[in-house]
Specification:
Number of domains of chain B: 1
Structural class of chain B: mainly alpha
Number of helices of chain A: 13
Oligomer: heterodimer
Largest sheet of chain A: none
Strand content of chain A: under 5%
Shape of chain A: elongated
Number of strands of chain A: 0
Distance between the termini of chain B: 19 Å
Strand content of chain B: under 5%
Helix content of chain B: over 70%
Largest sheet of chain B: none
Chain lengths: 201, 63
């Protein structure tokens, strides 16, 4: 979706700077004119850039943005498979995560610098996409941390009341037993390839 | 001073233009271009403008 207000603001900025280029000579001759130049050539562009960067950072967390690289398309399709065991599909289809930020919600760490780490990893993805090439098998940089699951499931009734969770709670919180050791299917690629998708009635 | 300010303004204008084009179609590439090319151009433009004004004030000396 086009960020209309941002585009209009940037367009106004470009036009304003173009006008200032043409009017530099008379403006630079007096103090008020110099102040106009200061606002138009420094303050306003910096403000617009901050807004643009902020929008870009926010947009880079969207599902649409993640799936805009073709190598992620299969992972995107895995959100729609008909498999009640596949974590990505279950979370997406049951709206357990916001649909507009699905990838980011599960794949960012919830620690202090989780956002920064996710964005830096995003830069690594871009580097791989444009420079070094995408590996034949796409995998996580490190084992999926339980803390990401527990961030939401920690005190949820469904999680707490399961006996098996209570039995191994200490190991789960310590990270010595991965949630994925039982919930094995994160993205059901077999069903993606078999085109077995869930369709809402 | 006028030429220096004009150079600064052109830099800033280009930076805004890059960001405008990126905002029209957000992809990982345009986002990086916006942050790595657009933003630095704005910063360089601002720096050139301030330097031009500073030099001009310095040349005028104490009034």
């Amino acid at each position: 979706m086009l960020p209309t207000s941002l585009v209009v603001a940037l367009l106004v900025g470009v036009v304003l700077v173009a006008m200032l280029i043409l009017g530099v000579t008379p403006l630079a001759a007096h103090t008020v004119g110099r102040l106009v130049l200061l606002v138009g050539l420094v303050a306003l562009p910096l403000l617009l850039s901050a807004g643009n960067l902020s929008y870009g950072v926010s947009e880079s967390s969207s599902t649409r943005f993640c799936l805009s690289c073709h190598e992620m398309e299969r992972f995107g399709r895995s959100l729609f498979v008909d498999d009640k065991q596949a974590l990505a599909a279950v979370h997406y289809q049951n709206r357990l995560v916001p649909r507009e930020n699905t990838c980011y919600t599960c794949h960012k760490d919830y620690a202090l610098f989780g956002d920064v780490k996710a964005k830096l990893n995003g830069l690594r993805h871009v580097w791989a996409h444009y420079v070094t090439g995408v590996p034949a098998q796409i995998k996580l940089y490190e084992a999926y941390p339980n803390s990401n699951c527990l961030h939401c499931h920690d005190d949820s009734r469904r999680f707490v009341e399961k006996d098996v969770h209570r039995t191994i709670a200490t190991q789960l919180y310590a990270g010595s037993v991965s949630c994925l050791s039982c919930h094995r299917i994160a993205h059901d690629m077999a069903k993606v390839d078999a085109h077995q998708f869930w369709q809402a009635q | 001073m006028i030429r220096a300010i004009r150079r600064a303004a052109i830099c800033t204008g280009l930076g805004l233009l890059v960001q405008l084009v990126a905002a029209l179609h957000w992809t990982p590439f345009t986002f990086i271009a916006s942050a790595v090319v657009g933003l630095p151009l704005i910063l360089v433009g601002g720096f050139l403008f301030l330097r031009a004004v500073w030099k001009s004030l310095k040349n005028q000396g104490p009034s």
